[in-house]
Design brief:
about 280 residues; alpha/beta; three-stranded antiparallel β-sheet; 10 helices; about 40% helix
Length: about 280
């Protein structure tokens, strides 16, 4: 990993996580030497990764978490993770939503962050299966109405699918699937539980995977939203291969090796935030 003393904390932790997953475990003394940082810094990084649930601390180091592929954290639990990365991703992704277009926003905390960036894009038609995302737009519309004649024009039209509510506050199942099948979107923005070269985009929820497949089939362009911690994670059910994805928006914590692999497989990779590059990578 070389001399990485000046890396940002998120980038350093991404490198540590990549090493843990690649080697099946690391020792603190190895990381201090390779990253050229103090023992205390490494231990803080491992504590942060353990809180995110992606590594398990053991005596003298850390190993990958053997997370059940069916485990699905709730919205509130996920909303506290990688906040700055999600905000960077949301700002970059918002530039892909053209005025007057019809877009779909699948559920998740990154899509929620994106919704907050899209409320000022005029004349959008937004279809979502996320209760939280819909609430962002409805709140903005109420604020616009209260502002009277000085309000901004062209507020979004929001369509919320029906369905059964998941721990992530998304609506899935036959009702949602039927609604999505009848529609066509210019762009789908979709968050993921995990993304990998082999499994593509995946989720631990079988019903959500099926609903996501309908989203993908109904979109002219598919934009995946995934912070660096999602790379290499595989949920129970895949809903799209990387060959079905037109662009991935991630954050600067994505390790260089992962960026190179993704860029080989996708038409467009957008690395948002400090240290990232926007456009074809």
């Amino acid at each position: 990993m070389g001399d990485n003393q000046n890396l940002l904390a998120e980038q350093r932790r991404a490198l540590i996580l990549d090493e843990v997953r690649r080697r099946g475990g690391v020792r603190v003394n190895e990381l201090t030497r390779r990253l050229n940082v103090s023992d205390m810094t490494v231990r803080r990084d491992l504590d942060a990764l353990a809180r995110q649930g992606v590594v398990e601390k053991v005596h003298g180091g850390a190993v990958p978490v053997a997370e059940a592929t069916t485990h699905e954290p709730g919205f509130e639990a996920k909303s506290t993770l990688e906040l700055s990365a999600k905000e960077d991703i949301a700002r970059a992704a918002a530039r892909m939503a053209a005025r007057g277009s019809a877009i779909a926003l699948a559920g998740g905390t990154t899509a929620y962050a994106l919704a907050q960036q899209l409320v000022d894009v005029p004349d959008l038609t937004v279809v979502t299966n996320s209760v939280r995302v819909a609430d962002v737009f409805h709140t903005a519309q109420r604020a616009t109405a209260a502002s009277g004649p000085t309000a901004r024009p062209g507020a979004a039209t929001v369509v919320l699918t029906g369905g059964v509510r998941t721990p992530s506050d998304t609506l899935v199942g036959p009702v949602a699937d039927a609604a999505i099948r009848s529609l066509h979107f210019d762009v789908l923005f979709i968050g993921v539980h995990g993304i990998s070269a082999e499994a593509g985009l995946s989720t631990p929820n079988l019903a959500e995977a099926e609903t996501n497949r309908h989203f993908v089939r109904s979109a002219r362009r598919v934009v995946a939203l995934a912070d660096h911690t999602k790379w290499g994670t595989v949920g129970l059910s895949s809903f799209a291969g990387l060959d079905e994805v037109d662009a991935l928006v991630t954050d600067a914590g994505m390790p260089p090796a992962a960026r190179a692999e993704i860029a080989e497989r996708l038409p467009e990779l957008v690395v948002a935030g400090p240290g990232g590059r926007t456009g074809d990578d």
